[in-house]
Write a structure and sequence with these properties.
The structure holds 2 protein chains of 2 kinds. Chain A contains 8 helices and 4 strands; from the N terminus they run ααααβααβααββ. By secondary structure, chain A is mostly helical. Chain A has a 4-stranded antiparallel β-sheet. In chain A, a hairpin with a 6-residue loop joins β3 and β4. In chain A, α1 packs across α2. The longest helix of chain A is centred in the middle third of the chain and has 22 residues. The radius of gyration of chain A is 28 Å and the shape is elongated. The N terminus of chain A is likely disordered. Chain B has a 3-stranded antiparallel β-sheet with strand order 3-5-4. In chain B, strands 1-2 form a two-stranded antiparallel ribbon. In chain B, α5 crosses α7. In chain B, a hairpin with a 7-residue loop joins β4 and β5. Chain B is of the alpha+beta class. The chains are: A mainly alpha, B alpha+beta. Chains A and B meet through α1 and α4 of A and β2, α5, α6 and α7 of B.
């Protein structure tokens, strides 16, 4: 039985590496690569024992560290004129320095007073936004959408009349149609969007257009509760 | 103009967004630019010296009346819901974009060493970051930059108002 004391939450492999360098009070320009590599791998093991999914990025840096270590073990090739450039750690050091700089910048930004949290302007209360922020919205997934679509389809018990004169429905047109109606109204329910479709074919096309727009991340679908009504919004104005 | 200061104060109060000095100039053709600048300076100073609950901030290229930072605990009681918050990942991503814009996603990831899809999406949704266009290289990656809203939310006059901007420049990053 081992006791895990405290594991810092790292923002990524560079963050972990920077932490190790600080902890060991190491000169960033002269990293003892064997020591750091060992500690880095130990930390990865700890993270793994916590059943955290180890992202590929952490492993990538581990591989980079080992690569650098092996390079440093090899005798230098006989090219004395490029001695300065030859340190295999250089690229990593540059990356670390850049990351460290931005970490400091981020800490400064994090200290700034934030509007609607630390400072407030006149009367812009979030609850004034009608109905949208009242409940935490759940992002609807594909299955919610398909289920809702099937519900609508099945409520559509009207017998299909065979049409010979097939109208041409264009997916791009349908997508634009949805977008322009979303520009007028901020958020539409799935039912509202499919309302205008009079035939099963139109219904299907509207739905396909909806899926395509979601795939391209132009629109987003949300619901307030699981199995609740789905509403569609433009994702970036 | 007898009461230029009063008029400007009222305009700022009535405006929904930070009100730029140029806009005030357009609204008040009777006054000259330097007069407006002077009145604005006096107003800012007035709010600072007066022991009230408001400050006149110069943010996002304009002027806005805001509550004092130390009064937040009381204002929060007035408001329902939890205040907006950004995750560390989102803030780090935002910081990189703020200092390095215009920047493509790949470069942000190189700096952070991790995937930034999720925080980037959140920042776009919160309208703190916007798509500025596409870079003319293979794959045509999207270029990101911060928005006016970003300046407003973090109380910055403009991008040069970002903290430690100079130190970052010195490092040549």
């Amino acid at each position: 039985m081992s006791y895990e004391i405290k594991l810092e939450v790292f923002q990524g492999p560079l963050d972990l590496l920077l932490y190790l360098i600080k902890k060991n009070e190491i000169d960033i320009y002269d990293i003892p690569i064997a020591l750091i590599t060992r500690q880095y791998l130990e930390h990865l093991d700890k993270l793994r024992s916590l059943n955290l999914d180890l992202a590929g990025e952490y492993l990538l840096l581990a591989a980079t560290l080992i690569h650098i270590k092996s390079k440093m073990l090899l005798p230098a090739e006989e090219e004395p004129e490029t001695e300065e450039e030859d340190d295999p750690r250089q690229e990593l050091v540059e990356q670390l320095l850049a990351y460290q700089t931005y970490k400091e910048a981020y800490l400064k930004i994090a200290q700034l007073p934030v509007l609607d949290k630390d400072v407030f302007k006149r009367g812009n209360f979030p609850q004034e936004e009608p109905g949208r922020k009242e409940e935490e919205k759940i992002e609807a997934n594909l299955f919610d959408l398909i289920e809702a679509f099937q519900r609508i389809l099945s409520s559509w018990d009207q017998a299909e009349i065979m049409e010979i004169d097939r109208e041409k429905i264009n997916l791009a047109e349908k997508m634009n149609e949805i977008l322009s109606s979303l520009e007028v109204k901020d958020g539409l329910s799935l039912e509202e969007l499919l309302e205008g479709a009079k035939t099963r074919r139109r219904l299907v096309y509207t739905f396909l257009a909806l899926l395509e727009l979601m795939k391209q991340r132009i629109i987003k679908a949300y619901q307030n509760v699981s199995f609740g009504p789905i509403r569609v919004y433009l994702s970036v104005a | 103009m007898d009461d230029l200061r009063g008029i400007i104060e009222a305009l700022i109060f009535a405006s929904d967004h930070p009100l730029p000095a140029e806009k005030i100039g357009e609204l008040l053709p009777e006054a000259t630019g330097p007069q407006i600048k002077e009145a604005l300076g006096q107003l800012v100073e007035q709010y600072r010296s007066r022991a009230g609950g408001l400050v006149l901030s110069h943010v996002a290229g304009g002027y806005q009346l805001r509550t004092k930072e130390e009064l937040a605990p009381w204002i929060v009681r007035l408001k329902s819901g939890k205040p907006p918050s950004l995750s560390t990942a989102a803030l780090e991503t935002l910081a990189i974009i703020a200092y390095r814009q215009p920047i493509v996603k790949g470069d942000i990831e190189r700096l952070r060493g991790v995937d930034v899809s999720a925080p980037l999406k959140g920042l776009l949704e919160k309208k703190l970051v916007r798509i500025m266009g596409r870079k003319d290289v293979p794959g045509r990656p999207i270029i990101y930059g911060t928005t006016r809203r970003f300046l407003e939310v973090f109380g910055l006059k403009d991008l040069s108002d970002l903290p430690s901007q100079r130190e970052l420049k010195d490092l040549g990053i």
